[in-house]
Amino acid sequence: MNARAGRFRTFYLSLFFVALYVPVLSVILYSFNESSSTAHWAGFTLNWYRQLFNDRVIAEAFKISIQVAVLTSVLSAIIGTATAIIAMYVTKKMKKAINGIMLLPLLVPEVALGISLLIFFSALKLPFGHLTLVLSHSLFCVPYVYIMVQLRLNDIDFSILEAAKDLGAARWQIIRTIILPLVAPSILTASLLALAISLDDVIISTYMSGAASTTLPVHVFSMMRVGVTPKVNALCTLILVGTFFIVGLGQLINKKANKKEAF
Amino acid sequence: MQEPLLKLININKYYGDSHILKDISLDINDGEFLTLLGPSGCGKTTLLRCIAGLVSIESGDILLRGESIKDLPANKRNVNTVFQNYALFPHLNVYDNVAYGPRIRKSMNETKLKRRVAEVLEMVQMSGYEERRPHQLSGGQMQRVAIARALINEPDILLLDEPLGALDLKLRKYMQTELAQLQKQTGTTFVYVTHDQEEALNMSDRIVVIHEGRILQSGSPREVYNNPRNLFIANFIGDRNIIKVKVLEKGDEYSRIRLGNHELYIRCSGNAECAGDMAVLAIHMDKMRISCNEMPNSLTGEVLSIHYAGSQIRTEVSVDGKKITVIEYRNSDCDYEAGDHVTITWEDSGAILLPMEDFEENGI
């Protein structure tokens, strides 16, 4: 009975992972397909990658994506961390309010969020481009940083902070010498996550992109309108690898930090 | 009379509706090892945190060398705390942990700092561990580093909050001796919080017994041990037989009492009136002896049971229907078995007569 249950579990899990990853694998596979149609396999080629690297528009979109993602990750790291630390020092009621406000952007549907931001920035007469992209991306990246930093902060033994105070440290000195070093790994991991999220975003970016500031995912989306070419497959493969790399790096940092400092 | 180093004046502290510290007044002298002793929840740790500045007080005042420090935040007070769970900074090594205070206060240059860190680590026997991180240390070692980290600041008072609570018994005993030595060596005033009466008796120059937010008694270990002011202290410190007795005749120092068929002369607690009809007789179990011969001022009874527990022999004797426990560390002058009739005597300092007032609430 147990063996059967075990076999069923294995089967079920295998099915699940196949369903999840076969489409992804097929994108990678077809990015190396000689034929421009996905109907059949015509042999291995790096042609599509060559075409990709020669595409000026894609290169420009990639550059913009990276710029926006880096700025977003820095901005959300600062705002998210600062808010999480401030939330430590306020009343319970206030902390609950801050928590609510911080998590709200994750609950609002992106389509609605995009339209609201569009109207808001138009009213402010902000030109659509890097600035609006960074601001709007930060809006939904900050919560991730906030949550991850807060999780780490909750792990800090409160008496450590009291000890620092007892030894003569004022609040800002405690933050600089104790709190920030202890949460640094989480800030780094969260920034990498923000980087990945910003690089991937399509919906908000569609609203926010100016004529001269199309991000890579938005460009991919527009490429799709003329049909899936193997070039898109190649691009998706690269984005996939890049994202995995960033997220994996974040996990690695977190794991290492956890091992080093058991509170 | 020398001016006390720290003066606590009518301190009151509330947490919500509960009154934690009730009108606490206490003088702490320069260079003494003072222990705040009490059961958990009595307010002793809160009192310590009030002195440290980690919690505020509702009324009263705290004077350090004659100046009020009531409104100074913890980081501006020249007192340091050794926390129960050590509270070392996990991201800093031993050297940086110890150097934290002087660096934050910018009180020394790096050369002097290096020398001082080496000195205090030597003092707590942790030289050579400078590069270790806290998680690479044992509990006892972390405790030493925590003490070094506090002592390097040369505080007016070192506050210790049950610092040995997390250590095992053997290490605890060893650290007791060491802490007492360290205190004499540095001449720093120690205020030590514990619920362990043995720790308090072993180390302190003076013990302050706290119960339900009030100071019940303050005195030398010998005084508190032999002359408890009331039943709570008698019951809390040392193992005692506690028996309700009838007072026949009240004397200045000794009163004549009746316990069953026995008439005894027992010393009265210092200030308490042992008048009234009834009083409480409290006798240290380990200051009693069992004898087969008749003795003056003694009790006779029937042996109920004898337990051998390592170095001590625990004998239970029924005296006029009341069970009395005697703890001896060597065999009695005579052999006896359960059912034999024996005489129980005691050292004079081991027995005391206390007022009845809180007999019921102590639940005896």
Could you please describe the fold and organization of this structure?
The complex is a heterodimer of chains A (263) and B (364). Chain A is an all-alpha fold and 263 residues long. Chain A has a single domain (56-260), classed as MetI-like fold (Orthogonal Bundle). Helix content of chain A is 80%, strand content 0%. In chain A, helix 8 (171-200) packs antiparallel against helix 11 (230-260). With 364 residues, chain B is α+β, with helices and mostly antiparallel strands. Chain B folds into two domains: 6-226, Rossmann fold (3-Layer(aba) Sandwich), CATH 3.40.50; 231-354, OB fold (Dihydrolipoamide Acetyltransferase, E2P) (Beta Barrel), CATH 2.40.50. In chain B, 23% of the residues lie in helices and 36% in strands. Chain A binds chain B through residues 157, 159-160, 162-170, 173, 177-178, 181-182, 261-263, and chain B through 52-54, 73-76, 80-81, 83-85, 87-91, 100-101, 104-105, 133, 135, 149-150, 153.
Rg of chain A, Å, rounded:
23 Å
Q: Largest interface, by Cβ-Cβ below 8 angstroms: which chains and how many residues each? A: A-B, 20 and 26 residues
CATH class of the largest domain in chain B: Alpha Beta
Question: Biggest sheet of chain A, open or closed, and with what strands and sense?
Answer: none
Could you say how many structural domains of chain B there are in total? Answer: 2
Distance between the termini of chain B: 41 Å
Bulk shape of chain A? globular
Low-confidence stretches of chain B: none
Tally of individual helices of chain B: 8
CATH H-level name of chain A... which superfamily? MetI-like
List how many beta strands of chain A DSSP finds: 0
CATH topology of chain A: MetI-like fold
Unreliable stretches covering 5 or more consecutive residues of chain A:
none
